[in-house]
Amino acid sequence: MVLEADSVIGSSSFAEAIKVEAIDSYTYTGYFPDQWCIGSVPHGGYVTSTILSVASLHFRTTLSSQNQPHTLTLHLTFLRRTSTGRATFKVKDVKLGRQTSTIHITLTQGDSRDKVVGYITHSNISLETGVTLPTNWELHPAPYPANVKKLQDGTDPHWRLLEQMPFAAFRKASTNVQFYFPQKGQQGKSLTDEWIRFSNGEKFTTESIGYVADTFPQIVEAYRDDRSVQPADGRKWPSFWYPTILLNLEIKKVLPPEGVEWLFVRVQAKQIKNGRMDLEVVILDAEGDLVALSQHVSLVVGAERNIAGREKGGVGQEKSGKEKTKL
């Protein structure tokens, strides 16, 4: 059975948007709707969540005898821009073990060229045993305290709802989430703290963590008003696109099947140089438990490259006619 596009197009449900179905034991299909795009390109975190959904289905069906339903780690390389429409996922069992198993997933579209490739390792977190030690780790600087009940009714003294993210028409995927930011502003230009929840009341599940790990205001935008880093000739910065070329994710805590409403996210860059940046992402739940860690390598390029034509090649080496675009 092939997933019907009509069931996804225009849907406000994240669960529907990342739904995949099996064509055979090692091939799955899904559909990327425009609602979850940045410009013309499906949001990298949304694509990550769809791949998590593929892995989850594969371990529930083809590899059900492994009894390893939980993603431990994910490593994705984004080779080429994805696009809206049908997506095919080919799975290869790489290593099946008693404690952990690893699969390889390749995402293709249209011309069948590889768009995203990755390794996903599964286990059964509920059966984990072994050494457990306190590390006394905590976030520095400490985030402002929050009360999710007060966040919901708008009375938390430390956090405020942002009614609309900048460039929302271009970054459509961001409109599906409500963002709460510190009343006093961020505690540094290269650091962002946020509390988020789905705009439609949907709950975050473990598969949602891929999207959450890539959903935040872009750190580069915090420097737009900093004259010390503006072009010397007085030109203004153009609109930027921030394509992810690598995303790592480690799940520390499995969210309950019914999901959770709120998650806290801290994003921090260590270096932004020559159009390339790293991002470290920490995700906590409302109880302050560590849910996931993520690391990204991203590019900073002109927004026009997001909607440029496409040709054979790697990420950004795609064109329409004679206009070649390189990232």
Task: Characterize this entry briefly.
With 327 residues, this protein is mainly beta. It has helices at 14-17, 44-60, 148-153, 209-212; strands spanning 21-24, 27-32, 37-38, 41-42, 70-78, 85-96, 101-109, 113-123, 159-162, 177-182, 191-198, 240-241, 244-251, 263-268, 272-273, 276-285, 290-299, 301-302, 318-320, 323-325.
Give the SSE string.
HEEEEHEEEEHEEEHEEEEEEEEE
Strand content: 35-45%
Gross morphology is: globular
Alpha plus pi helix count:
4
What would you call the structural class? mainly beta
Helix fraction by DSSP (H/I, runs of at least 4): under 10%
The chain-level mean pLDDT equals: 89
Low-confidence stretches: 311-327
Work out the radius of gyration: 20 Å
Distance between the termini: 38 Å
Q: Report on the biggest sheet.
A: 14 strands, antiparallel
Total strands: 20
Structure characterization notes:
- The chain has 327 residues and is mostly beta strands.
- Helix content is 9%, strand content 36%.
- The strands form four sheets. Strands 1, 2, 5, 6, 7, 8, 9, 10, 11, 13, 14, 15, 16 and 17 form a 14-stranded antiparallel β-sheet that branches.
- It is globular.
- The protein starts with 13 loop residues before the first helix and ends with a strand.
